[in-house]
Amino acid sequence: MGKRWGRTSGANIPNVRVYVCESCQTWNGAKKPAQCKACGHMNFIHFPSKAEARRYGELMLEQSRGLISDLKLQSRFPLHAAWQPPDGYQMQLHKIGEYRADFEYTRDGQRVIEDVKGAMDTPLSAWKRKHAEAEHGVTIQVVRR
Question: What is the 8-class DSSP label of residue 130?
């Protein structure tokens, strides 16, 4: 019988997690170290995949050059479903989950929301993306690696 991964998504396969030092942007491998090998700081950003970590590096470079601004990681968009009570009262919205975009930033005055995908996209991820686009009136770009 194979290994059971528990409650993980397809991106959380062992040995693909990456920890990037916040101060010097050095990659520190699949296991979170006590401190950065390069600069000694202890603050890390966790990325569930190498593709997402690479995209973060590209966006940080663009931000340092002034091409983008206001870079945010893991922006949250609550997802709601409408529900009509059987006794005829007014329709209500109930929170059913949330969509987390990998990156959000401003380029040429336009808000850009990105979701980085590696090898495949799950049906649940695609549905959450479409739901967030419809509910919040945004467009989410999928960056494939």
Answer: H
Residue type, 3: K
Q: For 47-56, how does the pLDDT look when each residue is reduced to its tens digit (9 = 90+)?
A: 888 888 889 8
Give the DSSP letter string of 46-77. EESSHHHHHHHHHHHHHHHTTS-EEEEEEEEE
pTM above 0.90, yes or no: no
CA-wise closest residue to 11 among 58, 52, 44, 57: 52
Cα-Cα-Cα-Cα dihedral sign, residues 57, 62, 65, 71: negative
Q: Of 103, 17, 12, whose CA–CA distance to 55 is shortest? A: 103
Residue 35 has which token pair? 């401190």
